[in-house]
Target: Oxidoreductase
Amino acid sequence: MSTTQHSIVIVGFGGMGSYHGQLINENSRLKVAGTYDLLEERRSASAEAGYKAYSSLEEVLTDSEVEAILIATPNDVHKEIAIQALRAGKHVICEKPVALSKEEFEDMLAAADEAGRVLMVNQNRRWDEDFLIIREMYNKETIGTLFQLESRVHGANGIPGDWRHLQAQGGGMLLDWGVHLLDQLLFLIDSKVTSVSASLSFILGNEVDDGFEAVLQFENGVKAVVEVGTTNFITLPRWYVKGIEGTAIIEDWSMTGRMVTRNQESEKIEPKPIRAGVGLTKTMAPPSEGATITEALPAPSQLPSGFYDNFAAVIEGTAEPIVKNSEVLRVLNLIEAIFASAGTNQVIKDFDIYAK
Ligand code: NAD
Model:
């Protein structure tokens, strides 16, 4: 593997830009050459953190020492910054959501194509441990073929008090968190989405959604339920998945969870009826003793490399991107379908876009 360190400038040195700085400092293939932010106070913060603080985007793009930029600005300016940088001959990492619409992203792709430069989107949650555990279960059929996946993130803090409140800046939870959860599902499930049914929530009275629910049906029979909430004072599990042979749960980011499967060794014993509420039920009684096995979650599957290492290898022409732009485009299509379903209160069926 090459040991060349590629110089990158972080454009937008807010919360995520600073975090990228910390992560890239720990990475051997990329090196932070500096940062650029519109705000003077963020330029000072950058200088305090030990980075060169460029005073304009133009200064970044005309610096021949700079090979790439990483865009971590609010979502509405991703497109214009990316296109300028690509035309200036820089490679680009862009934060998610890459753009506000698929048309915007197509313009960015055309610029990358014309310039012969790499454009990669930071769908970093493909590397999340919880997702990689689910991926292991899905691919290895640890609890039998998975037929239903429920993926949720719940908070109780509302929409953060910044540009995420504003439609013009690409705010709202579907674009913010939804893009991660949908990217994970489309990356995992190698099948066409045949229908989407969704609703957005506006409980907090913002002009953008403070959460959403979407049900996706895939051609291979898998159903996915995706939910983002910012008014959930009690949270539901991060993942709840059902397979033919069992059920699994991942509670939270600490990977608390378990798998419960049918005990193949045990004879089928009818459960005993229980009193449930004021009624009696056998159907909803717990399985008889010994009829199920409870186990720890499997170890997560591994991706071929980390995001920054992969980006470095892609610009050197020695690897395929792990986050492919065709996949990013599919997710943007799906987001548009979710907006359409929520806006019309209809199930969206006629996609021309999900063919692989
Ligand atoms: P933020 O508001 O904390 O920071 C954005 C920064 O960009 C600010 O400092 C602002 O001054 C600067 N800025 C705005 N317009 C600019 C311009 N035209 N040129 C240069 N700088 C400009 O926002 P954030 O939470 O850091 O989010 C930034 C991006 O990162 C968003 O796209 C967001 O969706 C993404 N993000 C990704 C993750 C992830 O896990 N992948 C997590 C958080 C945020």
The mean pLDDT is 96.
